[in-house]
Amino acid sequence: MRSIFAGAALLASVASTAGAQVTATSVNGAPDPGVGPLSTFTATAGQTNILNFNDCSAGNAGNGFSTTGLAAGISISGGGCKTVSASGQWAKPATSMSGGGFYTTTSYPNSPITIDFTSWLSSNSYNSVSSLSFYWGSIDNYASSQKVQLIGANGNVLKEILGQELTTMYGNQTAQQSNRRLNFALDASAAQDFRKLKFYSNQAAFEFDDIAMQTTSAGTVVPEPATVTLLASALGVLGLFGARRKRNGNTQG
């Protein structure tokens, strides 16, 4: 009997993650760097800026990101925080909202940048991220040159976007078409699963700024319809099994 309950729980668990959906949209770079798409782009309504890299001072810009302004529980590996463009290496995003510093891959070939929100989400009692966005500077659309991934709790890729999906420009440093705010809308399953962002670049640098999120505090989680249906089916099977055992005179657990 216990094995059947375990099987039902596993089926419900699989249903809650297998159908995870993430939708990506983007808008051109903001014409007004003092406002930015976060407040003018309807898809980012309700989001709060989590990382702006503005504490990336000139004194430590060459040695990676200064963690003095990094929220507790967020960790960053790979790349480095910069304040100005460097010819042939990286370019400051043209119209990021906050100004100040930005983050970028820093070596060739570039290892990925990983931003891990796991501890931050836990320590702030958040159980889901329903949407998130960031400002992507001078997007390069050479095949597979630049890409970003949303990563789940088990290292699974929830969504991957390549630079070539967003622009026909080739790393133009000032054109709005190749400086964009990329937004991800996560369904209930993906929202609970999301843990990390990964940024890859194997040719030109991957520059980004102003990561924003809309989070939901921990509480009662309403399961998706697919989960409810599967769980109901599993419980139905359990009921039939129990009734059959009773008719056969076997009441042991």
Automatic annotation (TrEMBL):
Q: Transmembrane stretches, by residue range?
A: 226-243
Which InterPro entries does its entry note? Ice-binding_C (IPR013424)
Superkingdom, taxonomy of origin: Bacteria
Cite the entry's keywords alphabetically.
Membrane, Signal, Transmembrane, Transmembrane helix
> Any idea where the Ice-binding protein C-terminal domain is?
222-246
Which segment of the chain is annotated as a signal peptide? Answer: 1-20
Q: What is this protein called?
A: Ice-binding protein C-terminal domain-containing protein
